[in-house]
User: Fold this.
Amino acid sequence: MAKLAGPMEIYPLLPGTNCKICGEANCMAFAAKMAEHTVKLTDCTPLYEEEKYAKNRAKLEELLRPPVREVVIGTGEKTVAIGGKLVLYRHDLRYTNPTAFFIDIADNLDAEAFEKRVKAIEDWTYVYIGQGLRLDGVALRCVSKDPQTFANAAKKLIGLTDWPIMLCSLDAKLLSAAATAIADKRPLLYAATVDTWSELGKIAAKHDLPIVAYAPNNLSDLASLATTLQAMGVHDIVLDPGTLSRSALGTTVDNFNQLRRAATIADNEQVGYPLLCTPISVWADYKEGDAPELTKWDEVLTAAAMIVRYADIIVLHSLDMWTNLPLTFLRSNLYTDPVKPVSVQPGLIKFGDAGPDSPVMYTTNFALTYFTVESDIKQGNVDAWLLVIDTEGMSVQSAVAGRKLTAEKVAEAIQEYGLGEKVNHRIIISPGMAARISGETEEASGWTVKVGPRDSSGIPKYLQKELWKEE
Amino acid sequence: MTDEERKSNLDEMFGEFAELVLENVTIELDELRLSLQPMIQQVAAQVAKPALSMPTSLIPAKFTPPFGEYTSKIHEVTIGATKNEGGTRSKTLTIGGHKAPAWDLFQAPPKHLPIIAADVFDMKISLAKVVKNHYEEVLEDPAEWAKLCVNKYGADAITLHLISTDRQLKDTSPNEAAKTIEEVLQAVKVPVLIGSAGDPGKDGPVLAKAAEVCEGERTLLCSATVDVYEPIAEAAKKYNQVVLSWTSLDINQQKELNRRLIDWLKPEQIVIDPTTAALGYGLEYAFTIMQRMRLAGLLGDSELQYPISSGTTNAWAAREAWLKDPALGPRELRGPIWESVTALALLLAGNDLFMMMHPAAIKTVHDLIDWMKERKPVKSEDYPDWTSMALPEGV
Assistant:
């Protein structure tokens, strides 16, 4: 694969003064972190302030530029950055800039429906491992085919939301009208084609707007469009090789794959841009009277496949919880830093006003398991103790199967964290998934083991009913 | 504009700029020079930039497909045996054989398409409501259960999980369990895979007995683990079966176990399973390990050149798949889409054998495999203009 710059390539170009302004002990330490892209070059302020470093700075910027450029959409606090990818596979380092989810809105909706949809897009959320999952932007589509309607809808939209906007029409005149109307909000323009690149390229260059190059199933045309737009002075380019689903899903997957491999492994700078995918395209097959659930189902599958296969931004129509929950989860999973620790500190955690008579439960130190259990206990608003056992960051089910959660480990943890001094009973509640080791645990620890619910969402009810106290 | 003209423009601009600043504020000359410097540099850079010559036609470009070099391929493993091969199955299933990363169609399409085995249990177990609905009638009859999976839900194979052999459940003896295997072999003609209970004290004898009962059938024994592998490998060798080498999200452990198994088995007798964690609950570990294993295998790591299996039913461990919560939408859809998306991610990572449960998810994954198996000759006009479609709102 194309090699990312290593510390020894970066270090000679740094000031070498070990000034510590960046927060690192010395320039070598900064170089090491820079190679991992866990710090930003701009943290080295002398590089930017002192004229004598200008040449090296330019070299560093070139050296450290990700093989997939980063494009920023929107202005103010609600911008979204896409692309900026450093590697093909997440295990090569990590994925940056999670796939941005843009939800469509038609320009010809009546005022009430328009407002309602914008609000629904902004309000869509779900709490997952302590963070709120959200959507990222609004894709305004020109369904009216009227430039004035499209431009007015764009203006209306910026009055309703400060979220990043994408303007969508394949007609250059229509797109120009809306683009000019809200150019200062830095919308993403969709799209320049082999027919419209000249007109739209000029607008994008003039207002410094990001623009999508669209060439369905023709990667050479796409490279040609990107090269031409670049030559016109357009800096922020996004590529769309077209999205087809169902029997042509393989073609879509393969096109995205070729583009991203070319940029990251074959050093093909002509296609080193973020990729846009349009799962919304599946709605072209929808006929009035059809069950919309089937189309939504296809939209989820298309989006899921392409989140895995390198889409940096997707356009969706569905706004349901059941459609976007699996997609936001998938995005969250794949964009997790693979080297980040997946475990929490083992130990004894106190909830509420837990005392000597409060119930004691145990779980594993897999971060996701822990946070899920934690949130469930808090939701139940009960006083309780939670013993977090070191399973090397494995979930209950996997840890039992993989012998990382054993009766001996539970017994040791009870000893180590002095459970016997905290409570005056000798009952511990095990996760339902660890029922298998409950007998051995009683033998190893001398404590009575009660098997709790299989899913921690059952904890509040279990504790409120005081089931653990029953003989 | 000539270079000379550009230079004089610059001078004008600097002059005006400096005067403008001096008009309004009184500052020390040095300070001014200092503060102006970056600004002037910026302005100068902008002004001095040569005017772009606007392209008048598209600049041609030729995209070259980014082929990789792979020195090795994944072993081919066949499960099931027909009459000609000494078994009683109506067909065999072969997986693996790949020589490029998963679904890199431009490099090489999959040598063998992935397959789906439906889970069948030898006793009534607790299942998510929306899964159970589809199996209500057969929960206590493994043979009927297997038939339903094959005839109605289109499973390529069956995995019979002998969970009743668990000492904490029914402690069914290996001989008793063998009878259930025979019943299921009678009931369906597709390959039948055999799963143990996950009881370290029983798995060895149960799977050894299963290997004996399935002599000639070329079954997959699920599973050998780092704790229990000898009796399983030995029986598989004796009766010519295939072994599922199952580890817990640890690529080094997977290599280690494979290394031990190869003392008994031939490469075409091993399938690997690095454990499947559900979407939202660790899926990324399974995804990345599968992807790494496939790549390592292609690049010559002989300990990882095996087809991969996934217990995709684990997707139901995610509460979002089954919780009854109106705010999350109908669980009748949410559940199977959860299992489907879990499978899809692993399909793209390179998984070959899916063990699944929900009929809609089984159908979906079959569809996905069919949709992705080759590039279709699509034209640019086949792509709809989604920007101008009238779409239903709020449905």
